[in-house]
Structure formats: C-alpha cells, structure tokens
C-alpha cells in the first residue's frame, strides 16, 4: 500500500509572472511558429528590461480554494537567487513549501517538516528557481535549453508553446498567449502525473523606480491541477508587492511545533502479518493502525464517527491502482503511541477499502500512522522481534551495528539506492506494502527487464486506488541495506496511473524483504540503518493460482484465475463468491486467513464452498507450486 496524500497547493511552482509595460494586453501581434529564443524575445519585448532592475523580491497574499476548503494564501519570491516560500492556512491544516537556495523543503498539514532532496526534487527545485528569477526573460534564457516553439489552438485561443529545460533542471512547457505573450500556463511532468498551472486575470501593479512610476502585469488568479486528482487549487491574489530585498531567513523551513512528549524511549509490540500493525490511542480510545512509511496519518469515517469528530473538506487521494478516494480532514486532540504523546494532530479521513481494514473476527483496522510519526521520532522497527521503539531524534544515536543507508524524498516516502539482478535504481521503503518487492514499469523497460518479468504468474493486488494487475516471478537477487538476498519473489506492475506508475522510482520494498532486517529510521539525519538478521523465510507464493478479495463480511469474491492452475482445474471462475474455506464460514476469516490457506504444502486440498449466481457448489483445490 502506498498512499500519496498531498494538497496540490504545496506544489505550486514559482509563479510564471510576466512583465508588460510598453504595451497594453492585446496589442502585440501574434507570431507563427517562432524559434524558442524568438518566442522568449517576443515575451521580453513586451516591456523594458529596466522595469525589473530594482525589484529583488515579490510578495503576494490572497485566498485559496482547495479540496473543499478555503483559506489564506501567501507567497514570497527572491528574484535574485530564486528562493521562494508558499503557505496556506486552511483552518484544519496549515501547509507550506519552499526553497531556501539550498534545500527544497515541505511542511505537511500536521506541522512536521522534511526535505525534498531526491534527484527529481533537486531538478524540480532548479526549475522553480529559474522561474522565480524570471530567467526566461533574459536574453540567454538563463542558460536553458529551448525546444522549437509551435502554435496551438486550445479552448478558442491561440498559444505559442515551447519547452525549456534550465541547467540541470526539470523541463517545463510554457504556453504564451499568441496576442499578448503573457505566460498563460506551465505544464510539468511529475513522477506519476502531469501538473498544469494556469495564470489569468493579469493586472498592472505599480512600482516606484527612482522618480518614476512604472508597472508590471501580474496574474491575480492561479489555478493548479494535477492529472492524478480531480481536485484543483484556485488562488485569487488580493495584493502583489514588489520589494527590494527579503532576508534569507524568510525562505527557511519553519520550526516544527512542540507537540510531542516522550521521556527516554518507548517500545510497543507489532503484529506483522504482511501489514505492520501497531496499537495506539486516539483521544483515549484504543485502535489498531497500519504503520506505513508510504502514507500519512489516516482514520476511516467510522473511526471519526466513534470519536465524535466532524470531518471537513472534500479532496482526493490515491495509491496503488488507478482510482482515487474522497478524503476529508480532522484534527485529533491526542494521539498516544506507547509512552509517546502527540497533541493536536491532523488526520486525513479516507473510506479505505473494506479489504484493507477487515480482519475477520477481529475489529477492523482504524487507518494508518505514517509520515507524521517518522518526522517526530527516530523509529526502530524490529521485524524479527515484532517490536516498535520510538525515541526523540535529538537523543538518538545508533550504536547497534548494521549498514547506514542515506534516504531521500521526492514526496513523503523515503527512497534508497537498491539493486535487482545487479541493476541499480531508486527503491521506496514502504512498510505499508504487505507483500514483496514491487517493480515499477518505466525503470523495468528502460533496463530491459520488463519482458522477462511479465512472463511471471499473473495476479492482482489492491490499494487505495483499487486493483493493480501484476506479474509474479523469482529474480536472481535483490540488494538492499548492504545485503544480497538471492532468489527473491517480486511483483511487476504495469499500472498506467497511481503509485505503481512512477517515472522515477525503480521498485517499492515491502514486508517480505524488510522482514530480514531491524531498521533504525532517522528522518532528521536522513538515514536508515539496516541490521540484517538471519532466519527469515520468505512467504511462498499463492499455490492455488487465484486471487480473491473480501468486499464485505459475507464472502470472498474471486477476481482472477490463472489458466491451467489448481483453481482453474477445480472449476473456479472470476466472479465466484467463496462462502466458506475448509468448513469455516467466510465471516470468521480475514483475507490474510484465506491467503494462508492457499500457501500450504504442495498437495494440500483446500475445500471451498462457493456460489455462482444462485448456484452453490464445492470446489476442491489441490495446491501445487506456481513458481519455479
């Protein structure tokens, strides 16, 4: 499971603002397919370059509407160094993102802060700085590599469009109005989506330069959309203010809130059955949560109701699979995890799939504990010992051996360098992935691995975005944390959208790999210590050749049957409903219980009571090895 829960307001890039002094909007003549440099020269010619001469900074304030919420919005930009900071206060959450000239940082809705320092984020930050400096209005375009411009018609308007790639930066597609040459939008390719920022409602902002008054045209409506979400962020700027200079401290990451109490350390048990489950208390009530480095703090609507909370907003969240879930937002007065207490915590409210939270006869899971925990504590996950230990980061020093592996962030999940079959790539460390290593399609194709991986056994998994088709096979080796693990079972996904469609990530490390280690995770120092422990036996692959999901307490719905597999030979078909397994009613079984039944020893017969429409039948599945 890999939830990417974010407010797109955090991702608004440096505003593509435009100078327009000598000519009023609408007076310039359109060009037909100019070169890239000619197009930018046309934009630059809209007014004298001297109008920017004394402006070193810009600040803006206004209102933002996002995810069904409305609040205040501010932005500051350093036109000399390319630094910027953007922030929004939406009541139930306060969010910010910025670049201080060295570090790209993010403050999430709970107030925690972490760097965005992965290779992609560094490229993105260089392009943000290029835009903030208005380098595209310089004669040399700030050293950017420019593609040929082309004319395009869209929504009844004509545009001149070109792609610019700043030095060591992320390419950005720039759309200029063909009449005014005001920048109308930027389009950027993100790891799992396409982000579009549109600028409109340009108005002249006066600026006193020496004894003269001049003006610059700046947009007063900024709309950000992302192909991974139906939500849009709309900023309406009330006031722009050109300034001479702002102090460097104005762009620094904010200090996280002092909202955490822990004396020494605390250790609590974990239930590791694929998912890593930990007990915690919300406002004094006990619940069980998935511990997820790939997610945020999340509760289900049912838990919010039990706590008497009233969620607000209406955003969208995704994960593995191509779909999205509606998300809302609450603040919880007190979260207790062992002896650690966190106060006034932001939680997302998501209607997680029944199959994610159900546990048979046990109470459903309440949701996830994620990034917010790891930002505040040094976290030790002892997979062999099934224990979780939390320490305050300023008191933590790793002393127990293992291999120190640097981590980096392009969003809210940590990444490390790993290798599969000797090929290096960026691996996400995802404690919420209940299964094996999941290999991403772009990296696999680029390294000539996709065809072999797709010859594996077809299966299907489920995440926040719904179903994800994948193929399971054994690979020669997986290397993480300084250890080579031979003959590992991996899944290969070919999702077109969602978390398993990344253009930058090679693979996602799940429980079956991580269970070989004790992990000391230290976000403050940017490192995970991997301590290898002998003795972990990888979980066998499903020996029935079928996938099934529990949509409700009454039964398991068969979603896939591999041709010529034991399940196919037993007469099972997709859509069949399993009502009992070896005589035990489905109401008493979890999805994990069924999975355990299907990995028993070769030759074991599993008796399934099923229905197909109104017809009841018994299927006897004789298990055999599906992977060589």
How do you describe this structure in short?
Helices cover 10% and strands 46% of the residues. With 628 residues, the chain is mainly β.
What does this structure look like?
This protein is mainly beta. It is built from ten helices and 42 strands. The radius of gyration is 27 Å and the shape is globular. It starts with about 35 loop residues before the first helix and ends in a 6-residue tail after the last strand. About 50% of the residues are buried.
The structure class reads mainly beta
Q: Would you state the CATH class of the largest domain?
A: Mainly Beta
Low-confidence parts lasting 5 or more residues at pLDDT below 50?
1-33
End-to-end separation: 27 Å
Number of extended strands = 42
Identify the CATH architecture of the largest domain: Clam
**Percentage of residues in strands:** over 45%
Major sheet size, sense and barrel closure: 14 strands, antiparallel
CA-based gyration radius: 27 Å
**On the 0-100 scale, what is the average pLDDT?**
90
Count every helix, treating DSSP H or I runs of 4 or more residues as helices. 10
Indicate the percent of residues in helices.
Answer: 10-25%
CATH topology of the largest domain: outer membrane lipoprotein receptor (LolB), chain A
Counted up, domains total 4
Outline, from the CA principal axes?
Answer: globular
SSE topology:
Blueprint: H1 36-44, E1 57-66, E2 69-78, E3 84-89, E4 94-99, E5 104-107, E6 113-115, H2 119-132, E7 145-146, E8 150-154, E9 157-165, E10 172-177, E11 183-189, E12 194-209, E13 212-226, E14 232-243, E15 260-261, E16 265-273, E17 275-282, E18 285-291, E19 298-299, H3 301-306, E20 312-318, E21 324-337, E22 340-349, H4 354-357, E23 367-369, H5 371-376, E24 378-382, E25 387-391, E26 403-406, E27 408-409, E28 414-420, E29 423-429, E30 437-439, H6 441-446, H7 450-453, E31 457-463, E32 466-480, E33 483-493, E34 507-509, H8 511-514, E35 517-522, E36 527-532, E37 546-552, E38 555-561, H9 566-569, E39 577-581, E40 584-585, H10 591-597, E41 605-612, E42 615-622
Parallel strand pairs: 18-23, 19-22, 29-34, 30-33
Antiparallel strand pairs: 1-2, 1-14, 2-3, 3-4, 4-5, 5-6, 7-9, 8-9, 9-10, 10-11, 11-12, 12-13, 13-14, 15-22, 16-17, 16-25, 17-18, 17-21, 19-23, 20-21, 21-22, 24-25, 24-35, 26-36, 27-28, 28-29, 28-32, 30-34, 31-32, 32-33, 35-36, 37-38, 38-39, 39-40, 39-41, 41-42
């Amino acid at each position: 499971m890999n939830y990417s829960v974010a407010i797109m307001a955090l991702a608004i890039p440096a505003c593509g603002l435009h100078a327009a002094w000598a000519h009023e909007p609408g007076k310039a003549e359109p060009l037909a397919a100019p070169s890239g440099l000619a197009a930018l020269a046309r934009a630059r010619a809209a007014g004298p370059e001297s109008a920017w001469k004394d402006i070193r900074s810009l600040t803006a304030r206004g209102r933002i509407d996002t995810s069904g919420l409305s609040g205040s919005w501010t932005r500051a930009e350093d036109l000399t160094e390319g630094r910027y900071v953007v922030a929004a206060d939406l009541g139930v959450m306060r969010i910010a993102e910025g670049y201080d000239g060295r570090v790209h940082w993010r403050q999430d809705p709970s107030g925690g802060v972490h760097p965005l320092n992965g290779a992609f984020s560094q490229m993105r930050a260089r392009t943000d700085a290029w835009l903030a400096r208005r380098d595209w209005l310089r004669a040399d375009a700030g050293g950017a590599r420019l593609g040929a411009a082309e004319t395009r018609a869209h929504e009844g308007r004509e545009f001149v469009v070109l792609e610019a790639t700043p030095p060591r930066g992320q390419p950005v597609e720039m759309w200029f109005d063909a009449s005014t040459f005001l920048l109308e939008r930027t389009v950027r390719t993100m790891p799992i989506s396409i982000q579009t920022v549109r600028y409109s409602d340009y108005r002249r902002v006066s600026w006193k330069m020496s004894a003269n008054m001049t003006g610059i045209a700046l947009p007063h409506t900024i709309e950000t959309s992302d192909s991974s979400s139906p939500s849009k962020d709309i900023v309406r700027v009330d006031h722009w203010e050109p300034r001479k200079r702002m102090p460097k401290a104005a762009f620094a990451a904010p200090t996280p809130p002092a909202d955490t109490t822990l004396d020494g350390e605390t250790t609590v048990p974990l239930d590791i059955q694929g998912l890593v489950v930990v007990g915690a208390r919300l406002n004094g009530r006990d619940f069980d949560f998935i511990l997820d480095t790939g997610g945020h703090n999340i509760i289900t609507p049912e838990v919010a109701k039990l706590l008497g909370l009233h969620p607000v907003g209406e955003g969208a969240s995704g994960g593995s699979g191509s779909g999205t879930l509606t998300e809302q937002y609450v603040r919880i007065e007190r979260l207790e995890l062992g002896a650690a207490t966190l106060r006034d915590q932001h939680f997302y409210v998501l209607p997680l799939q029944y199959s994610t939270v159900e546990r048979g006869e046990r109470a459903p899971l309440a949701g996830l504990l994620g990034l917010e925990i790891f930002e505040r504590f040094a976290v030790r996950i002892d997979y062999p010992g099934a224990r979780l230990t939390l320490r305050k980061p300023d008191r933590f020093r790793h002393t127990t051996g293992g291999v120190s592996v640097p981590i980096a962030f392009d969003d809210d999940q940590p990444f490390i360098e790993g290798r599969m079959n000797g090929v290096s790539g960026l691996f996400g460390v995802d404690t919420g992935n209940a299964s094996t290593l999941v290999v991403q399609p772009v990296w696999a194709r680029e390294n000539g691995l996709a065809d072999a991986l797709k010859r594996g056994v077809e299966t299907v998994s489920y995440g926040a975005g719904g179903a994800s088709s994948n193929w399971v096979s054994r690979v020669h080796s997986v290397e993480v944390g300084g250890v080579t693990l031979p003959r590992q079972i991996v899944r290969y996904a070919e999702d077109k959208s969602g978390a398993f469609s990344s253009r930058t990530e090679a693979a996602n490390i799940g429980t079956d790999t991580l269970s070989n280690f004790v992990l000391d995770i230290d976000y403050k120092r940017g490192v995970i210590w991997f301590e290898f422990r002998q003795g972990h036996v990888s979980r066998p692959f499903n020996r029935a050749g079928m996938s099934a999901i529990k949509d409700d307490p009454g039964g398991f719905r068969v979603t896939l049957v591999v041709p010529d597999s034991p399940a196919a030979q037993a007469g099972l078909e997709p859509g069949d409903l399993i009502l009992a397994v070896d005589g035990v009613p489905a109401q008493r079984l979890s999805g994990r219980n069924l999975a355990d039944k299907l990995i028993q020893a070769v030759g074991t017969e599993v008796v399934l009571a099923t229905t197909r429409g109104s017809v009841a039948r018994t299927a006897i599945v004789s298990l055999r090895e599906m992977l060589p």
